[in-house]
Amino acid sequence: MFRSSSHTHQRSRGLRSWDSALVLILFITFAFVSLFALHGNTRKLFCGITLDISSTIMYASPLSVMMLVIKMKSVEFMPFLLSLFTFLCSTFWLVYGLLSRDPFLIVPNGLGTGLGIAQLILYAMYCKNHSHTKDEIMDEFAEMDLEKTDQMKKLGYHA
C-alpha cells in the first residue's frame, strides 16, 4: 500500500505543476481577452461569468474532504476556522450582493454560504469523533485518488 500511495503522491506532484501552468495560461488568456477583445457590457458579462465560475469552484473545493468526513465520521482534516471563515466571508459577500442587486455576487456567494453551512453542520456532527489514525485517513485519500484515476482512464484520459 505504501508504494501505491507514494506513486500516487509523486504523480499528483506532477499533476499539480500542470494544473498551475494551466491556471496561469487561463489567467493570461482571460486578462488579454477582457482587456483587448471585449468592451462595455460584453466585457462586464465575460468577467462576471468567468469570476462566478472560479468562485463557485473555490467554494466547492472542500466537497471531497466533506465526503471523507462523512465516510470516516471524523473532522480531523477539515479545520473548523477555515469552515467558519468560508461561511462568514461568503455570507458577507452575499449580503453585499443582495444590497447592490448584483447577480455576479449573489450566485457564487449564495452557493458558498450553503456549502459553508454544510461544513459547519458536518463539523458539529462529527467534532467529537477522533477515532481514526492519520494513516487510516491518508489511506482513504489515496483510495479516493486511485478511484478518480480509474474513472479518468475509463473516460479516456491518461496520466
Describe the overall structure.
The protein has 159 residues and is mainly alpha-helical. It contains 6 helices and no strands. The longest helix has 36 residues, at 2-37. It has helices spanning 2-37, 41-60, 63-72, 80-100, 103-126, 134-154.
Strand and helix map with partners:
Blueprint: H1 2-37, H2 41-60, H3 63-72, H4 80-100, H5 103-126, H6 134-154
Question: Which range does the strand content fall in?
Answer: under 5%
Q: What is the terminal separation in angstroms?
A: 20 Å
As residue ranges, the low-confidence spans are: 1-10
Note the main sheet.
none
- Total of helices: 6
Write down the overall mean pLDDT. 78
Helix share, percent: over 70%
Order of helices and strands: HHHHHH
Form type: flat
Based on secondary structure, the structural category is mainly alpha
What Rg, in angstroms, do the CA atoms define? 19 Å
Number of strands: 0
Question: Which keywords apply here?
Answer:
single chain, 159 residues, mainly alpha, 6 helices, 83% helix, disordered N terminus
Question: What is this entry, summarized?
Answer:
The protein is an all-alpha fold. It has helices at residues 2-37, 41-60, 63-72, 80-100, 103-126, 134-154.
